[in-house]
Amino acid sequence: MLKLETLRKKLRFRPSPPQVMLFGFLFIILAGAQLLSRPISIAEGTSIPYIDALFMSVSATCVTGLTVLSTGIHFSIFGQVVLILLAQIGGLGFMTMATLFALLFRKRISFRERLVLQESLNYSSTEGIVRMIRKVLLYALVIELAGAVLLSGYFMLEMPVGQALYFGVFHSISFFNNAGFDLFAQFPDRDGSLIHYVEDPFINIVCMLLIFFGGIGFIVISELITYPKHRKFSLHSKVVLSVTSLLIVFGAVVFIALELSNPDTLQQLSGGGKLLGALFQSVTARSAGLSTIDPGMLREVTQFFLVILMFIGAGPGSTGGGIRVTTFAILIGAMIAMVRGRDDVILFRYRIAKRQIHQAIMFTMIAFFIICTGTMMLSITETGDFLTILFEATSAYCTVGMSAGLTSHISDAGKIILMTLMFVGRLGPVTLAFALNTHSRKELYRFPEGKITIG
């Protein structure tokens, strides 16, 4: 009897929070691919191979925006709605959406479910997690609704009312979730993405605000809303807001310096257009993947600079990717501390724990290793210059979605590589490692400390 009970316990599979996230994302991706490959999702006169439907499902669920098919041309209205719903689920997190239905039906959220929510939002503890989820859903709804109203009203000036409303809702969800999908390619006189609006201040400002709020994370949004009442920010919010702002300004200045004399990009624009173009590319390069200037027309040095911005990414717990701005801030702080001969890393008069410094270094090295591996594999399967391949691999892993032109004609093997990069980048390599590691155990002893020469 005892042996039978022991066997039952071994056979009973209770997934850990990382495993729930892993299997949940896989289920959503496969379900999305099945829907996108059905005739109801495909535009008349076109056909979609299953691997392309799977690629689009991965890109939408991982809120990346890399596409092998045109969203506005190859998909019907139903297919487009499926894509934007996948982006919404992927941006907010499938557990957040599941919690929404649980709250609507007044279902109790178990402690195990709270652990998964904590993992998906990068929240510090399970305390107050359900209250935070309510805020996340409310903030997302309000911001997306505001964006939809503004964009729809503007689009009514150039298209029928019904189409303008649909375009406004679709693009507001896409931009806030940093998904990078757009429908403008269905207009024969326009290029894809937002290139047609490169000098339009209204579209640029609204889209940049949606991308900005989607990229700073819901914890920061919550503190921004409550700031007039409490008059203070946490260290996390201070770091995210300050580093994000500095990167936007610095990125725009560098972009202008590098592209000002390029006849294919900034040179042909007016003074205001140059500023808008540089600011938009600086904002979108770290998370959104949209562009008002064709990335393929940029100089190689500018493309490499955008690779660096993509690698840094957005804020933790946001809809963006990359190593995160907080990781970047800790690395810069550690470098400054070492140069000054200090033992502690100080940010805003707070000492950063050694464990977090080690985590920042680990996350950066893992991301660097994965991107290098992906770039090497794409160099084998694809024909193209090295920088373009590096650009695409970084964009996929950091879930940015900017393309220098490689993804549109990539091979099936290359699609599998990019899908893997997008999935690992959205889920997080550490979460994936914990999900696959089913036999973790605590070490009962430590080895003696050794010293090696560095530098």
Gap between N and C termini: 62 Å
SS element count, helices: 19
How helix-rich are the residues, as a percent range?
A: 55-70%
Q: Work out the strand percent.
A: under 5%
Order of helices and strands: HHHHHHHHHHHHHHHEEHHHH
Described by strand count, sense and barrel closure, the largest sheet is: 2 strands, antiparallel
The best one-word shape is: globular
- Side-by-side strand order of the widest sheet: 1-2
Give the oligomeric state: single chain
- Which regions contain 5 or more consecutive residues with pLDDT less than 50? none
CA gyration radius, whole angstroms: 22 Å
The overall strand count is 2
Helix and strand composition category: mainly alpha
- Provide the residue-averaged pLDDT: 84
Number of individual domains: 1
Q: What's the quick description here?
A:
The protein has 455 residues and is mainly alpha-helical. The protein has one domain. Helix content is 63%, strand content 1%.
Report on this structure.
Strand 1 (346-347) and strand 2 form a beta hairpin. This protein is mostly helical. The protein is globular. The mean pLDDT is 84. The chain has helices at 2-11, 17-36, 50-61, 71-74, 77-92, 94-104, 111-121, 129-155, 161-176, 201-216, 218-230, 235-259, 271-284, 300-312, 325-339, 354-381, 386-397, 412-427, 429-436, and strands at residues 346-347, 350-351. It has one domain (15-432). Helix 8 runs antiparallel to helix 9. Helix content is 63%, strand content 1%. Strands 1-2 form a two-stranded antiparallel ribbon.
